Amino acid sequence: MKADPKGVLTGSHYIDGDFACCEGALAAGCRFIAGYPITPSTEVVERFARRAPLVDRALFIQMEDELAASIAIQGAVWAGKKAMTVTSGPGFSLMMEHIGLAAMTETPCVFVDVQRGGPSTGLPTLPGQADMMQARWGSHGDYEIIALSPNSPQETFNLTIDAFNLAEQYRVPVMLMMDECVGHMMERVVIPPAEQIEITPRRFTKLPPGEYLPFKPAEDLVPEMFKAGDGYRLHVTGLTHDFRGYPAMSPEVQEQLVHRLVNKIRLNAPKIWRYEETGVEDADVVIVTYGITSRVAVEAIDLARKKGIKVGMLRLIVVWPFPEERIFELASRGKAVVVAEMNYGQVFFEADRAARGKAPVILAGHGGGTVHNIEDIVKKIEEAHRCRS
Amino acid sequence: MPVRQRETPFGLPRPETPHGEIVILEERCKGCGFCIEYCPHGVLDTAKKYNAKGYHPPEIIKLELCVNCGFCRMICPEFAIYTYERPKAGEKP
Amino acid sequence: MSVIKELQKASLSPAAGLTSPEKHPMDDFLRMDRMPHIWCSTCGIGVSVNCFAKALEKCAYPLDDVVVVSGIGCTGRVAGYVKVDSFHTTHGRAIPFATGLKLANPKLKVIVFSGDGDIIAIGGNHFINAARRNIDITVICLNNFNYAMTGGQVAATTPADSILSTSPYGNFETPFNLPFLAESVGAVYVARWTSLHVYNQTNAMVEAMQKPGFSFIEIVAPCPTIFERQQKMGDGLDRLRWYCENSEIRTDAGTKEADIRLRDKMIVGKFVDVERPTYLDAMNAHYQEHLGSKYKVYEG
User: Fold this and answer.
1) Measuring CA to CA, how many Å separate B21 from each of B84, C70, C115?
2) Are residues A54 and A143 in the same domain?
3) Which of A178, A270, A302, C230 has its CA 20 to 30 A from that of A22?
4) Would you call C149 an interface residue with chain A, using a CB distance cutoff of 8 Å?
5) Do A192 and A281 sit in the same domain of this protein?
6) Do B23 and C22 touch (CB under 8 A)?
């Protein structure tokens, strides 16, 4: 269905990534944000606080902490709205229990993490990309989520809408992993008219109360949804539950439920994978990167190509589920992989695992606080090139 | 001068004490004893028999004293006992 | 080994509920396919659920609009047994979940039904902020003075000198005085009753649900398997007798005097019943004043 024009700020704007994220959420139909101020994500909620009273049926509330924010949005989702919360590293850590709850109860919602230097309080005003594994594994237990990583304010706008669409499609919490650079850089963002924005509506059931089972999956392993107040009178719990939603704590039900939660993303992964490839076909070395680092990598590739090394780039747009098939394919064709990311090795380990030893995988890592030096990436490209021969 | 109380104030009928019928859902009972203790007229007592769970449910010992106050129904944690007004002669319950 | 398999099979079976065909007038309100509930014999939680059912009947809200949210713990299981849209959330976070529900759809009647540890210890921050904001929800806090589900640990409401598994030599901490706390953070309706006071409890629930704003009811309940047993106070029935002797209904008491000591008299009653604009009313009034005709009143 098309976006609701009341939330779409059509036009060409000069705004930063955080503002673009807020506009993307409004365009996607998000009408409830519960947030908590934390640098460098605060601007998203500041923008929403300003916009919400003027957009029909939108409400912003600043909660008392990230724990409250991350569960208030789930209450809003079960009351029928699309909801999002926004945070950075320390707040993301606090939200982990509720990301697990959202995964277990299959609540479609969006968590935005504008990453900063870590760990702990770290570098509040400087970029990092060290929450990538946390997005995937942060909460306890077995579950799968989807994580996206934009590299510009324009892409932030687009991917925020995609995040909501994926959340509704798969009834899963979706992480939008920005970084402080993308969040605070100001660039041109073109917001199209509402009729050109495609949004996925919530998969509400058409079955009547009594027939509908809230956790019985459809063909694609995703159950249909309901909302409180529609007369279904159903129970939703974080305990292991059966199709009716009733707690049923036994190994058989655990297998039936949790295995499906995991397969929901794993088996649908080929439909979810998204990456952008440039110059990969003839390349000897492929840089795998995401977020702001990809923009530095573009420069590094130019330099390396001038030095005669054939380098391509695979930019991850959907980071989780990880496109392991593509990495394996590239590695099998003898292409060395350099993973450029602003941490000491996170997506690197995934790429290394995916390559299954077919080709060397090298980390061009960096602790954060600033973007990579182009020369450092070029050095790693040269090293990969040498390893390859 | 002392005022004499009339037994029937100005032609109104004397209010009738209601009578209750009690239904005990014995299999639900967990033998807490609340209904037995707090019945204002002592209508219930602990039965000697056991239910399937091994508890002693209540039994009615003085049904004629039940006034359908509903306290046993309200205080039962198991939803195992309730009362209703005894139908008057000729009426259906 | 096969006995265990049989038990597991039985718990998976949909007919693991009651097999008795008899009906109780409140059965339509309960998920009878999950009965009998897990609460111990003489536990006070079942009594409060009974009163809640009666209160809903008295208020005559359409049950489709009623939502019950609870946290983790023995009282947290209430959400699973009442036949309305119900949510069993994480420990301590029932109140912010209820806030999200209510603000996203103000037509819903949202009731938080949870235990003392869940609401005021781990959930303390959310409790005080929701009360401050006067979010229009009703919070029913069942106070059995310990963390019962996990085996009876000391809680923020445990009276001094109580012996529990994490205060094996007696509790030396000062407990919360819940009515005092609720009043001081701005709750508009504050009452305390015990499991014995069933009619008062029911009427308090009716009043609290009908009152706009953050209403708080503390229900002092017996926990025979753990609290009363550890303090050697008998079972739930002995405790109800104790409430009968030792609880004093006062209509003039200030919440400051409502401390609970282990073997002392306890004050019950309605402490606070005041008026204050709810969060949404305040928000709508404020934006209308500041944004004028550009603002459309938020109704959900």
Assistant:
1) 5, 36, 35
2) yes
3) A270
4) no
5) no
6) yes
Residue A61 structural domain: 5-196
Angle at A73 between CA A237 and CA A140, to 5 degrees: 50
Query: Are A175 and A80 contained in the same domain?
Result: yes
CA of residue A136 relative to chain centroid, distance: 10
Q: How many CA atoms lie within 13 A of C34 on its CB side?
A: 23
The CATH number given to whatever domain includes residue A309 is 3.40.50.920
Domains of chain C in sequence order: 22-294 (3.40.50.970)
Q: Kindly indicate the confidence band of residue B86, based on its pLDDT and cuts at 50, 70 and 90.
A: confident
The residue out of A149, A167, A196 marking a domain boundary is: A196
Between C34, C101, C295, which is nearest A53 by CB?
A: C295
C259-287 pLDDT per residue, tens = 999 999 999 999 999 999 999 999 999 99
- C33 contacts in A (CB within 8 Å)? 246
Please report the ipTM that was assigned to this predicted complex.
Answer: 0.95
Instruction: Say whether residue C161 is in contact with chain A using an 8 A CB cutoff.
Output: no
Please tell me whether residues A71 and A178 are part of one structural domain: yes
Q: What SS3 string covers A321-381?
A: CCCHHHHHHHHHCCCEEEEEECCCCCHHHHHHHHHCCCCCEEEEECCCCCCCCHHHHHHHH
Is residue C13 less than 8 Å (CB to CB) from chain A?
no
**Among candidate residues A138, A162, A196, the one where a domain is terminated:** A196
* Cβ contact C27–B78 (<8 Å): no
Cβ contact, residue pair A79, C63, below 8 Å? no
Give the CATH number of the domain where residue A132 resides.
3.40.50.970
Those chains having 3 or more beta-carbon pairs within 8 angstroms of chain C are A, B
Q: What is the pTM of this model?
A: 0.93
How many domains does the structure of chain A reveal? 2
Per-residue tokens: B51: 């239910």
